[in-house]
Amino acid sequence: MPIKIQDALPARETLENENIFVMTEYRAMHQDIRPLNVLILNLMPTKIVTETQFLRKLSNTPLQVNVSFLHMASHEAAHVDKTHLDTFYVTFDQIRKKKYDGMIITGAPLDFIEMEGVDYWEELKMIMEWTKTHVHCTLHSCWGSFAGLYYHYGIKKRDHVPKLSGVYAHRVIKKNSPLFRGFDDVFYAPHSRATEITAEQILATPQLELMAESEEAGVAIVKSEDSKQFFITCHPEYDSDTLKLEYERDLAKGMEPQMPVHYFPDDDPAKPPIVNWRSTGQLLLSNWLNYYVYQSTPYDLQEEN
User: Fold this and answer.
1) What is the pTM (predicted TM-score) of this model?
2) CB-CB contact of 124 with 178 (8 Å)
3) Is residue 236 within 8 Å of 167, Cβ to Cβ?
4) Are the C-beta atoms of residues 293 and 136 closer than 8 Å to each other?
5) What is the pLDDT of residues 232-291, one digit of tens each?
6) Residue 220 in contact with residue 213, Cβ under 8 Å?
7) Can you say whether the dihedral through the CA atoms of 87, 57, 92, 246 is positive or negative?
8) Helices marked H in 96-136 — which ranges?
9) DSSP assignment of 238-255, as one string?
10) How far apart are the C-alpha atoms of 99 and 30, rounded to whole Å?
11) Catalytically annotated residues
12) Span 24-65, pLDDT tens digits
């Protein structure tokens, strides 16, 4: 949360130049406060695990957040009990007339499949179009990023073989962005994907900004110039054992996966991973929620657009 100071305090300019968020008395007096309404479109088959990962990050902030979960009506989920979906999830038809402060579109295990080949692609396109007028700010995660970049900007993904799996170092490009307040110049985050886009594709699209990248893993964070859309190809929300469980799953399937890099100490799967991305995930989601949702969303959502 911001620190509130007098409008003319000399330290104000110094703090702002250091990318410290301050709020003047004038702004504080004119700011209305209410709970944020955030919608999560959960495309992962492991619904409960993904719910927990994102809720953990969203909950560790002073903001009050009302979270709703959305699932695709055009896709039959095979890895979650129908009762769970009926109890805790809504479909697009149930909420299409509502407006939200923020939305998260999660990843999905859809490597090597063209977007048009995804069984719920038409419904997803409808939802992504709807976000333009009914969501103040949308964050796309991993496969959700590739889907969003393709739909909104025509940027096509390409296969990455072998699959990226591991914890990678990333360089912050836009160091003065509020998204990176509290970040080190280099941060770590997991990747788990066999899909990529290139920095050249992003830089060739004037409406987009390349925010962070990895020498090994490539493009990591992109946002639209108007800050209404964020695209995150890494997984800072992952638990300590997520990559381990994925690796063991693929081994059991006889897929001969490569061991996640920079993950197991001494590259020994018998040793528990040491987490070096937890603070990154917390800062990233908290900064997004605070600076790009809470600080800019209208008090009355009906005023949006």
Assistant:
1) 0.89
2) no
3) no
4) yes
5) 999 999 999 999 999 999 999 888 899 999 999 999 999 999 999 999 999 999 999 999
6) yes
7) negative
8) 121-134
9) --TTHHHHHHHHHHHTT-
10) 23
11) 142, 235, 237
12) 666 655 556 678 899 999 999 988 889 989 988 888 788 888
State the residue for tokens 């890895």. Answer: 79
Q: Pull the structure tokens for residue 191.
A: 């990747």
Indicate the DSSP class of residue 112: T
Nearest to 192 by CA among 7, 44, 83: 44
Question: What DSSP string describes 254-265?
Answer: T--PPPPBTTSG
The label of the residue with tokens 């490009």 reads 173
Q: Looking up tokens 């995660």, which residue turns up? A: 141
- Pair of tokens at residue 256: 């001969």
The percentage of residues in the chain with a pLDDT greater than 70, rounded to a whole number, is: 90
Q: What is the pLDDT of residue 30?
A: 57
CA atoms within 13 A on the CB side of 101: 25
